UniProtKB/TrEMBL annotation:
Name of this chain's protein: Uncharacterized protein
UniProt region (Disordered), positions on chain: 38-128
Organism: Nocardioides euryhalodurans
Segments of skewed composition (Basic and acidic residues): 44-53, 65-114
Biased composition (Acidic residues): 115-128
Amino acid sequence: MFSANRSSTTRRSLGREGHILWLIVLVSFLLSTFSACAPTDTSSEERRPERTSLVELDANETDERENQREDRERDENERDERENQRDERERDERENERDERERDEDERGEHEADEHEADELEADENGA
């Protein structure tokens, strides 16, 4: 008799434990469902930085690449302009030097022509 009494008590206690487990599962399910559906606190969202979407990130990267390309082009244009100015100065200096040489040669030529003419006049006067 003792053994029959024991087995019925065991069945009842397993039944109670089963009910308790079902209640725990049910309560945890309900809590997780309601916590997911509960309205969020907007003040905490305001403090949290906004998340940037992938599209915005891609647009930002594209803008940054475009800005870098424009910067490189501007730098190249400035460098080309400096080189052009330097070349122009060098060309002007060469032209000025050439003009000075030509003037010097012209003056020497005129001076020699004047001396030659003076020599001819002197020779004519001596011969006459």
